[in-house]
Amino acid sequence: MTYETVIGLEVHVELSTASKIFCGCPVTYGQEPNTKCCPVCTGLPGALPVLNKNVVEYALRTCLAVNCEISRITRFDRKNYFYPDLPKAYQISQLYQPIGRNGWLDIEVNGTKRRVRIHELHMEEDAGKLMHDPWEDQTLVDYNRCGVPLLEIVSEPDLRSAEEALTYLEQLRGILQFIGVSDCRMEEGSLRADVNVSVRPAGSNEFGTRTEMKNMNSFKAIGRAIEKESLRQIELLNEGGRVIQETRRWDENKDASFPMRSKEDAHDYRYFPDPDLTAVHVSEDWIDQVRRELPELPADRRKRYIGELGLSDYEAQIVTGHPVISGLFEDVYDLTKLAKDTASWIMGEYLQLLKDKNCGPENLSLSAEDLAAVVSMTAEGKVNRVTARKVLAAVIEDGVKPQTYIEQHGLAMVSDASLLEDTVRRVLAENPQSIEDYKNGKKKAAGFLVGQAMRALGGKADPQLLGSIINRQLSEA
Amino acid sequence: MDLLKQTAGGVGLLLADRKISSVELTADILKMTEERDEVLGCLITVDKANAMKQAQAADDLLADVGTGSLLTGVPMVVKDNISTAGIRTTCGSRMLEKYIPPYSASVYSRLQKIGAVMTGKSNLDEFAMGSTCETSALRLTRNPWDHKRVPGGSSGGSAAAVAGGLAWYALGSDTGGSIRQPAGYCGLTGLKPTYGAVSRYGLIAYASSLDQIGPMAQDAADCALVFSAAAGPDKRDSTCVQDVSGSLRAGLDKLNRDVEIVLSGGSVDKISLKGLKIAVPAVWREHALQPEIADVLEKTIKKLETAGAICSECDLPLLDESIPAYYLIASAEASGNLSRYDGVQYGSRTQAADVSDLADFYSRTRAEYLGPEVKRRIMLGTFALSSGYYDAWYLKAQRVRRLIKDYYQSLLADYDYILGPITPATAPEIGTSLEDPLTMYLSDIYTVAANLTGLPALALPCGFDKNNLPIGLQLTGRAYQDADLLRTGMAWQRETDYHLRVQQIRQLGPAEGNTNLFAGGGNEKIHQSLTGVAL
Ligand SMILES: [Zn+2]
Hints:
heterodimer, A: 3 domains, three-stranded antiparallel β-sheet, elongated, B: alpha/beta, 19 helices, 11 strands, 43% helix, binds zinc ion
């Protein structure tokens, strides 16, 4: 029997507001433990939460970006459970009246478009972090993360493969980064997902029993976990077994998931409206204002790049992959009006630089003006691409201006036809064997000759002009 | 001490006129506390150093003409569920027996700014859950009127401290009657303010949607002074904000000025009962009430009418439903609020050597350090919220609450106040209440509505029973019209002298008490069996 995999994702994203959701403590990462907390976020007796309006604003932005219906009155509820990283023994979250419902996101995998429905979107507070000290055999609690604002975006079980799930996640991450609500750094845990997986016979309309893997924080692990979990379930069913509804823990090192003890799983959260917080009224005006200030979303941008700028689907996809990259593309294009060339530089040299330096786009200091200068002078034939690459590297390393660097190093491209004619003549005279080879049909010989001529000119020759001169002289020889 | 006959405002006037100093007064009251509190048991913590430091600060403030208020330098006590930075705040529980908060409740900070002097933290039922002060795991408080009786609860330590002459006023908290009922049992005046009038920031929560901090004192004028200093918006409490409590301020400022005029011997014609429309629910007459209380209420109505008020009978549906609704909501909220006492970050923690895992750690810590009444309510609330029962219990209780609220609102569209008793009986003897929690819960029947509706309610002395125990009346007013309510209380006390009787109790002190302290025997044993604490 063939099976279909059914996946739903609950994505938790840490918002990048300046302060926490219910107190004035800063939202930070990697600080000294228990230095960024106060009576409110550590749940001291008598302390009360006060909602940070910016969190609602960020949530509204996200609702609009993923096409959610927005609740005009939204409330917070308490989710009760005991755990040492949760100092109040309840998490302030939203169950009964979440801020967003019934959204969707379109994804495209292997040329097929699919609409992934979003069940709901709600605000909540993060918990602290437990750190186990194996030497002392004790567990310590760091409350710095307590009260960091989170959005939870719950999809319907509309995804059918690991690839679709990852595409959805990438798309969602792009949106969240574009609208500036989160930096989505998975390695810092600011984007985490709970993954629900079930399988069913292909063509069936009924859902199988699902299992859940919580708190996954790398795309690679999520993809792998989905594949392995659906295989496990299929094998189980094929052997005549049954899937049990349970929470499983993904172990990346062992490349397998394991059931959690059922005790940790069997929660009755006893949700009830938090009496310490009043209802939030979301006015039409507020929504309109957020909508007006919403930046162009990556999907709209892609459409525009393909339709108006003539980029390919693939090019459009890459240059809208991250808000910083997309911003760079926009600015360079504005300066050069060279869409294809700009895209080519970003997809080639720029991404290579990020890879070499092992840094994110927000950490590479490269101004649009400098990249635009490099793109333009290459397109105008002032320098060739190999030289231009050197220029770009120097711009980033030493902070020089491209034009200055070219002048200082005499890198301007040689387009003087008579100089090129003379050089080619000399190179041909020095390589009679290559001319012979060329005439005997070894077309590769021409390439060797181009290389020799280019070297003689210090790499600065206009490659197109040089090629045509060599071809002509060879045919005349 | 002669000054014990004075009200807080009266002493405040002497301080303001520099006829006495707060340092001397505070030293005297600390000495008095030492003599009396061994018997009365009002205070869980006495912080002499803090009191003397605050007294000095008050004297400095008063020396600077025009910067003090009528409460500057007047010794008072604060219920031990209100956080005081650096001074332990126990909630009367072994769980928080050693807990010292690093921050102060907003209301305490506000009082500190005007030069308040706090001598100690007063006893209460554990986490404010109880009606007699007997569920406190740390002390047994006696009623200064009769030492074999309870002072009421949960703000029993606050009431006993004022009635017993250890303080001129006290802060209490009221979730279902916890200010009004002990005020009634101890012949005091106490205000449960409109929900949202006083910041709850730093009040250790019992039931967040019902809790409210308020004043307890010898008369309504003192309550007006304290409430005026305590009330006002607080950006740390989302349920206490400018746009809801803003309308309160103007009324309070005016009332404050009138109180000052009255204290200085002037007269204010706005303080009058004339023309007030007062609703008297007939059902209260039918309900089981100690006969003397019913008699006193009838006489009260006559007196009000003689003074020009118009009293009319009215219906009061849902009275019987209010108790289950109240206990379900309060317990549900409490089950969440008290979950944080898990032994991890602060508070007591099990010392057992054979703890097997985290769940065992939690249950042992909570089993060992929370008392039986607290556990009972946590379990009730946990049940009411559990999946499958939420709709039938918690939601239904919320619907009843909404109906009660609507009814009160409609009643107060036609009437200025609703009049009623505070409790079905006067203060019971120590050791007679805890064995039957249901009866104890039912005794809250007249007070819980003000908490369910959020309306302000004032307890005022209005007579005595055959044992000379005080009887109180309760006036419920319109939301955020607490100033008018207090003004009406002042008018009542201008017509009557029931509130003056407590002066004698304050002066007498426990040694010359009018009853035998240890009559009845066995009560101590009962207390020990219920709380695990020997007296
Ligand atoms: Zn904080």
